[in-house]
Amino acid sequence: MEKSRIRSYLIGIGVFLLAKFKWALALLKLTKFGGTLISMGASLGAYALIYGWKFGVALVYLIFVHEMGHLIAAKRKGIPTSPAIFIPFVGALISMKQQPRDAATEAYLAYGGPLAGLISFLPAVILYRVTEDPFWALVIFMGALLNLFNLLPVSPLDGGRIVSVLSTKIWLAGLLALIALVIFSPSPILFLVILFGFFTWWNRARENYRSSVLTYEKEKLTEVLAALRQWPTLTSMLEIKQSLAHAKETASREEEASKGKWLIPFLQDDERLARDKARMDCEFAERMLALLLEWEHRPVEYAESDPTRPIPSELLVGAGQIAQDRIQAIDTELHRYRTYYVASASTKWKVLAAYLLLAAVLSLFMLYGHRLMELYR
């Protein structure tokens, strides 16, 4: 009966506080960092519920400083980001609102997190020396471990984004090492890292193939622009119609012949590319034929009713603009494929030295924190 009464009191207090302070929650949602504060509070509550409030505060603090390192680095490079969002038992994340111009810039942003993470637990070293409280030894160990884990050379972890300047092939080695670690020590977090890391590595590994597909698409779009310029000058469109219909039928047969056949990536890329080309040939022929038929049924307009001054068809002009915009987008993507991961030798050496130095310092602090905690077992 007593427990029931206490529970009723607590519920009443909770309802009162919610009614009085709901405006504060609304205000948080409207502020720029409202999402950060709300998600931080949720994470703190989750950690405190299981591990205690001291551990929860320390962990949220370490993660927060780590994310602030990314935000400061992004600001220095002029790259806008979203505020940090905390995810209980996963960590926190920020998203970039624009793509860095190259991998070296992305590595700079990634390095800012673990570097700030190193600074975050240095006060705990001093506090331990003064108080000899084992809690501060735990903070040292935890801070070093979290940031060292983030330096694993697997994208999308910070380490993977840093070593991409050296070579994205390192991602595969990091994935294999993580898979071996999971076999001996299963962990949901490691499974997630492996899953995201695999997709990131795969996208990078398939860029050459996508470049071939995009290059062919650009060729087809260039043909479209040439055809759109030629059509108004022709007196008869019968030959064009027949050519497009024949191209559509031929490409459709080729695509159908290879449809449903599973092709092994890398080993059968030539066959896969031929199938993709046939698909694009069919799609372009079908679109051009439909465009031609629609254009033919539209009356020709003349400037000031002068038959020698035909007004360019809005339909063809619009189709040409769409093709030009797509070509520009393809050129941008192809340029990124060719140049994003290119860096000078001096840049690579600097990145390698900074990466190894930070990893070494974090490793030493992790061992130091672990040795301190062993003293109190």
Automatic annotation (TrEMBL):
The keyword Protease applies. It is a multi-pass membrane protein. Its main location: membrane. Residues 55-128, 134-170 form the Peptidase M50 domain. The chain crosses the membrane at residues 9-28, 48-66, 78-96, 108-128, 135-152, 172-202, 351-369. Pfam families: Peptidase_M50 (PF02163). Signal peptide: none annotated. Keywords: Hydrolase, Membrane, Metal-binding, Metalloprotease, Protease, Transmembrane, Transmembrane helix, Zinc. Its cofactor is Zn(2+). It is found in: Membrane. GO terms for molecular function: peptidase activity. GO terms for biological process: proteolysis. InterPro entries: Peptidase_M50 (IPR008915). Belongs to the peptidase M50B family. This is Site-2 protease family protein. It comes from Cohnella silvisoli. The lineage of its organism: Bacteria, Bacillati, Bacillota, Bacilli, Bacillales.
